[in-house]
TrEMBL record:
<dbReference type="InterPro" id="IPR006860">
    <property type="entry name" value="FecR"/>
</dbReference>
<keyword id="KW-1133">Transmembrane helix</keyword>
<dbReference type="GO" id="GO:0016989">
    <property type="term" value="F:sigma factor antagonist activity"/>
</dbReference>
<feature type="transmembrane region" description="Helical">
    <location>
        <begin position="81"/>
        <end position="99"/>
    </location>
</feature>
<feature type="domain" description="FecR protein">
    <location>
        <begin position="163"/>
        <end position="256"/>
    </location>
</feature>
<feature type="domain" description="Protein FecR C-terminal">
    <location>
        <begin position="296"/>
        <end position="365"/>
    </location>
</feature>
<dbReference type="Pfam" id="PF16344">
    <property type="entry name" value="FecR_C"/>
</dbReference>
<dbReference type="InterPro" id="IPR012373">
    <property type="entry name" value="Ferrdict_sens_TM"/>
</dbReference>
<keyword id="KW-0812">Transmembrane</keyword>
<keyword id="KW-0472">Membrane</keyword>
<dbReference type="Pfam" id="PF04773">
    <property type="entry name" value="FecR"/>
</dbReference>
<dbReference type="InterPro" id="IPR032508">
    <property type="entry name" value="FecR_C"/>
</dbReference>
<protein>
    <submittedName>
        <fullName>Sigma factor regulatory protein, FecR/PupR family</fullName>
    </submittedName>
</protein>
């Protein structure tokens, strides 16, 4: 079995492990094999290139010994081979832990982490789901969990302003009366008229949303947020307006940002950071900025304090002792937002060497 095949099979097993789909025997094999290399692998203090080469040599030698060992029935012990391959992939840097050039900041890849299952949890919390509170023009309120690509809330409402409020642990997708699709993240509020004007389409947003705007050259689509305006004709983009620093990332089309008397144009693949009347344009990490829409947490050079805030918003929990979290280490990688809270905390615990406890709707940092 060559190294490429090992890597492919290893990735499948590692994904199976991270998704909690391994059998108890497979989980035990992962743990045992990881620690079986502990005395042989070079220390982290050695030169990274030499360390990597020696690590591969040690593991490949061990794999070769396994290849020469057959079971009593004559079959190759493939499960143990896959676990060894997991270690090889990790040590090879495909899913590994690495250091940034800045010696004062360590960046840990979450994909390399074996979840710690020893957390003390009095209870568990399921992930967020589709949920919103709708306020109609007549003041009536309705709670809904139904959202879909063909849903048009405006069609049955009297003329006036509709408000969609998505609480913590919620998300919501809706279709506006012009055909524009909007995905709302947790702790977000969108207000819009049941019928748009003949010359423009205006909505108001706080929180985070992804817009796929229906093209209408006669009616520009405008998003009002914290004193700024984003104007488009037909395009796809993400807007984050949780704080007084707003960011918008353009996936396709063209966006005009209006702040005070200033206009700034954004091209695809870029993002604008808006604070007051100041606008800074830079290349965007589209994968990261739109990960929530794909039901992922995606981190890239985020410290634990930033990560835990996003986790708290999605699971609607209070973080206790958050002030003790370090900002000297950053993390990268993706975690499914469909996982239970305990599963997310198990990964973070292994990556950070911190302990977390769940008590009701509180997460206590140890």
């Amino acid at each position: 079995m060559n190294e490429d095949n090992l890597n492919k099979q290893a990735k499948k097993l590692l994904q199976k492990y991270l998704n909690g789909q391994c059998t108890p025997e497979e989980e035990q094999q992962v743990i045992e094999w990881f620690y079986s290399f502990g005395d042989e692998l070079p220390s982290a203090e050695e030169d990274s290139t030499d360390s990597l080469k020696r690590s591969k040599t040690v593991i490949l030698d061990q794999i070769q010994r396994e290849e020469d060992t057959l079971t009593s029935s004559g079959f190759f012990t493939w499960k143990r081979m896959l676990v060894a391959a997991v270690i090889l992939v990790v040590m090879g840097g495909l899913l590994g832990i690495y250091l940034k050039s800045n010696n004062t900041t360590q960046t840990v890849d979450l994909a390399a982490v074996i979840p710690d299952s020893s957390g003390q949890y009095k209870n568990d919390i399921m992930p967020g789901s589709s949920y919103a509170v709708i306020t109609y023009p007549n003041g009536k309120r309705k709670t809904t969990v139904d959202s879909g690509t063909d849903q048009n809330l405006s069609s049955s409402a009297e003329k006036g302003l509709l408000t969609i409020e998505v609480p913590k642990a919620g998300k919501y997708k809706l279709t506006l009366n012009d055909g524009t699709n909007v995905w709302l993240n947790s702790s977000s509020v969108l207000s819009y008229p049941t019928v748009f004007d003949s010359d423009q389409r205006i909505v108001k947003l706080s929180g985070e949303a992804y817009f796929d705007v229906a093209k209408d050259t006669d009616r520009p689509f405008r998003i009002e947020l914290n004193g700024s305006v984003i104007e488009v004709l037909g395009t796809s983009f993400n807007v984050n307006a949780y704080t007084d620093e707003i960011s918008t990332s353009l996936v396709e089309g063209k966006v005009k940002i209006i702040t005070g008397q200033k206009e700034t144009f954004l091209s695809p693949g870029n993002e604008a950071l808006i604070k007051g009347n100041d606008v800074a344009v830079a290349p965007a990490d589209i994968q990261k900025n739109t990960a929530w829409q794909r039901d992922e947490f995606y981190f890239d050079s985020d410290n634990l304090s930033e990560i835990i805030k996003e986790v708290a918003r999605w699971y609607d929990v209070e973080i206790v002792n958050a002030g003790s979290l370090t900002v000297n280490t950053t993390y990268k990688g993706a975690i499914s937002r469909e996982a239970k809270l305990s599963e997310v905390l198990n990964i973070l615990s292994s990556a950070t060497q911190r302990r977390f406890e769940i008590d009701g709707r509180k997460v206590i940092v140890k």
